[in-house]
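A favour, since you know our structure tokens better than I do. Go ahead and set the record down below.
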Amino acid sequence: MTHSSLHFPPLGEFDFVKRVLSDAISMDESAPRSRFWFGAGDDCAAFDGWLVTKDMSAEHSHFRLDWSTPEQAVEKCIVSNVSDISSMGGEPKIALLGICVNQSWDKLTRERVAKAFAEGFRKRGISLIGGDVVSAREGLFSITLLGRAVGEPLKRSGAKVGDTVYVSSPLGASAAGLWAFLHGKQDDPELVDVVSEHLCPKIDEQCGVRLVKAGVLGGCIDLSDGLSSELNHLALSSGVKIRIDEEKVPIHPGVLRLCKKYGENPRNFWLKGGEDYRLLFTTDLAKSIFNEKNIQVYPVGEVLEGSGVILRNLEGKLETLEADSWSHL
């Protein structure tokens, strides 16, 4: 997928590429402030100061067009990538896009997908510089996203003994929305908020940047695979033990509404569910510092010496938390 001033041939693939590249913004030629390098192990890798991530959305796994609109499916894919950049204290700047078009999608659906990507990148100030388009029996979106850190990158290995553990938002909404679809409750008016969160999550895409500017230097990871999994990632990467208190975990009100109405356990959503795309981080900064800067965060636990993750439940008893969340394999 290349962008040029030449006329595109009157072929379906070229027309599609032209639509995706319509009004693509030019690259911001500012280089990263510092030239750091690190490989796999965090939400992003980095080379020569550029944060880089890749996230894919597969039809019937991450999105279904009988549940969502093409625009929602595209936004969800973009958000999943932006969240990785945010979790390391970065701002997304450059994208490469791969699209596998489902051969059964009609012309209108293809046009809506193309337009959604064009507008989704443009409104975020992301320059789309290339990619590829193919077709097959199922759709697939693949984004490689590059960002610039605003300071020292936040890494999973940054948690220190004595830090407080925070999350940036109430949890569990996306998993609750998925439950609604799987149980035929997606049209329940009391679940409209969690259904919306599953189809097209709305996150604070500048959260990581604001944390860095506030002085956060601890560990950080985005909540894409569920809290239990991400807590274990953070503890293992940092070589520490993490303890969280169940009574302190902020649960999305839609989750509580669903559980009260249908008799479900909230833990299935806030602890095991994924695709929240909020941030889990540690820092020695007190909550009052965030309050002064108008940054909404929720303290949920602390970093201790040792290894693993433990949960103090509502009865005051300690439980070992193993990674128990969504896996594609």
Remarks:
- Residues 156-320 form a domain with the Phosphoribosyl-aminoimidazole Synthetase; Chain A, domain 2 fold (CATH 3.90.650.10).
- The mean pLDDT is 93.
